Amino acid sequence: MHELPLLLFTLLLQGSVGVTLWLALLRSRAGSVLPGVVLAFVMACIGLLASMLHMGYPLNALNALRHVASSWLSREVVFASLYLAVLGLSGLLMIVRKPGGNLLLPLAALFGVIDVYCMGQIYMHTSVITWQHVNTLFLFYGTAGIVGSVLIALMALKGRWTCLPALAKYAVVVVAIMVLARLLVQPLWFDAIMNASQQIVTLPHAPLVRLQQLHDVYIAAWVVSVVGLFCFAVGGLRKAKGALILGSLLLVIAELILRFVFFSIG
Question: What is the pTM of this model?
Answer without folding.
Answer: 0.91
